């Protein structure tokens, strides 16, 4: 091609490209599904008709300037790569974030550096939703409240007594006061969504709120705190319970050193609990009763649904609230499909001695097929107590 002729044709080429962009289908240029991450802290700006909405607080006070981030995976949470982010919260602490239907890990942050994602400085705040990942259904907004724990200080290290192993110690607080009876578990990764036994567990805290775990290998650990109002060892976090995701997760434990941290937890408030993604009513449901072999109601049990036929100790895909006085339960699903159904007393770990446990036994593999937008009734489950 002649160089001069190519230069003369450039304006026409630019015009053609501009026309192509203007005439392109909207879906070709905008996000239509959770497949391509957005740049950090850029709101979607797309009116999907579904997403997240709610309020951000610190110590019960609404705060302006907080940002809610949605991630496609927990790895993206650690890498500061949000799929989408809300605009900074208004003066009344409210936010709204449009999202395509799907599952997201949701985190709220308030950073002195501004409304972009990134690590926390001292005095910044972060809240990791304990029900992550949250399910966004078509045509609906999930109401989620965030109470933000703060970063009080950087992790401190001092010399330990064992050169081959490390230790982790600190204090657990709620609204500036030590929290008694709180349980700390540490995890090597998020493979089980921070449910289950974890790598190690500290004894429940005393009045000082202090804890310590020794003989740890040199590794990065994720710190999770739970305190249940009813004193149960497992189960979903419900209203009145306490939950803590350490704002500086993961913490590096070093051989020959004692790592010291200060963890602030939040209380599961009614505003969040009544609209929790785990229990929010949907158009697709599985319902039934849970009874013992004598046909009697067993208080305190709940039903669960797995999408994988291997119903292991990992967190179920969907769960019900505990049964009512007649033993009835409702599992809300995000859509239709095949689900593997059971019931138990506790939650997260493998069934333990003394626990009520059972699986739906009408089908050999304990499965049912739910149709999207419909209610599947009569899925009754018989539970038995696990004895030695």
Structure description:
By secondary structure, the protein is mainly beta. It has 4 domains: 1-28; 51-147, Sandwich (Immunoglobulin-like); 156-273, Sandwich (Immunoglobulin-like), CATH 2.60.40; 284-385, Immunoglobulin-like (Sandwich). It is built from 4 helices and 29 strands. The strands form 5 sheets. Strands 21, 22, 23, 24, 25, 26, 27, 28 and 29 form a 9-stranded mixed β-sheet that branches. Strand 11 and strand 12 (177-178) form a beta hairpin. Mean pLDDT is 82; it is low at 1-46 and 270-275.
CATH superfamily of the largest domain: Immunoglobulins
Whole-number total of structural domains = 4
Q: What structural class results from the helix and strand content?
A: mainly beta
β-sheet strand percentage: 35-45%
Low-confidence regions: 1-46, 270-275
Helical amount: under 10%
Instruction: Report the CATH architecture of the largest domain.
Output: Sandwich
Please give the largest β-sheet.
Answer: 9 strands, mixed
The level 1 CATH classification of the largest domain is Mainly Beta
Secondary structure blueprint with pairings:
Layout: H1 3-23, H2 26-29, E1 51-58, E2 61-62, E3 67-71, H3 74-79, E4 84-85, E5 94-98, E6 102-110, E7 125-128, E8 134-136, E9 141-147, E10 156-159, E11 166-174, E12 177-178, E13 183-187, E14 200-201, E15 210-216, E16 219-227, E17 242-245, E18 251-253, E19 257-264, E20 266-267, H4 270-273, E21 284-292, E22 302-306, E23 318-319, E24 328-333, E25 337-344, E26 356-359, E27 367-370, E28 375-376, E29 381-385
Parallel strand pairs: 1-9, 11-19, 21-28, 21-29
Antiparallel strand pairs: 1-2, 1-5, 3-4, 3-6, 6-7, 6-8, 10-19, 11-12, 11-15, 13-14, 13-16, 16-17, 16-18, 17-20, 21-24, 22-23, 22-25, 25-26, 25-27, 26-29
């Amino acid at each position: 091609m002649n160089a001069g002729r190519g230069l003369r044709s450039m304006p026409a080429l630019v015009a053609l490209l501009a026309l192509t962009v203007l005439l392109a289908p909207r879906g070709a240029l905008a996000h239509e599904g959770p497949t391509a991450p957005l740049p950090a802290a850029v709101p979607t700006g797309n009116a999907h008709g579904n997403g997240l909405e709610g309020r951000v607080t610190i110590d019960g006070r609404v705060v302006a300037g907080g940002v809610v981030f949605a991630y496609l995976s927990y790895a993206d949470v650690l890498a500061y790569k949000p799929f989408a982010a809300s605009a900074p919260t208004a003066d009344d602490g409210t936010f709204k974030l449009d999202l395509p239907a799907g599952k997201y890990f949701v985190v709220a942050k308030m950073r002195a550096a501004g409304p972009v994602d990134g690590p926390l400085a001292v005095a910044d705040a972060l809240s990791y939703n304990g029900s992550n990942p949250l399910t966004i259904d078509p045509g609906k907004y999930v109401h989620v409240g965030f109470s933000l724990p703060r970063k009080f200080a950087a992790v401190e290290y001092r010399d330990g007594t064992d050169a081959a192993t490390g230790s982790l110690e600190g204090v657990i607080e709620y609204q500036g006061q030590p929290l008694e009876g709180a349980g700390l578990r540490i995890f090597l990764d998020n493979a089980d969504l921070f449910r289950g036994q974890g790598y190690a567990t500290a004894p429940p805290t005393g009045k000082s709120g202090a804890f310590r775990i020794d003989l740890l290998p040199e590794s990065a650990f994720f710190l999770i705190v739970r305190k249940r109002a009813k004193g149960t060892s497992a189960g979903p976090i419900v209203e009145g319970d306490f939950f803590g995701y350490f704002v500086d997760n993961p913490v590096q434990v070093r051989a020959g050193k004692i790592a010291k941290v200060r963890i602030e937890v939040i209380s599961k408030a009614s505003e969040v609990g009544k609209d929790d993604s785990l229990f929010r009513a949907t158009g697709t449901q599985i319902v039934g009763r849970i009874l013992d072999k004598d046909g009697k109601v067993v208080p305190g049990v709940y039903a669960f649904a797995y999408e994988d036929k291997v119903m292991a100790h990992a967190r179920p895909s969907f769960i019900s609230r505990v049964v009512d006085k007649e033993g009835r339960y409702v599992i809300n699903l995000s859509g239709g499909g095949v689900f593997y159904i059971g019931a138990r007393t506790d939650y997260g770990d493998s069934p333990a001695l003394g626990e009520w446990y059972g699986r739906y036994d009408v089908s050999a593999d304990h499965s049912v097929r739910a149709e999207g937008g419909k209610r599947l009734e009569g899925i009754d489950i018989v539970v038995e107590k696990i004895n030695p």
